[in-house]
Amino acid sequence: MSGPVLTARSDQELDRGSALPDLRKPPITKLQLVKYAGASGDYNLIHTDDETARSVGLDGVIAHGMLSMAFLGEYLCWLAGPESVRRLSVRFSEMVRPGDTLTCRGRVTERTTRDAVVQLQLEVWAENQRAERVTIGEAEVHIT
Amino acid sequence: MDQPPALSRDLIGRESDAVLFEVERGAIRKFAEAVQDQTPECARGDVAPPTFPTTFRMTIPGLTFDLARVLHGAQEYRYERPLRAGDCVRCRVRVADIYRRQGRLGEMTFLILAMEGKDESGTAVFTGTSTVILR
Question: In A1-144, where do the E strands start and end?
Answer without folding.
Answer: 19-24, 85-92, 103-114, 117-127, 133-143
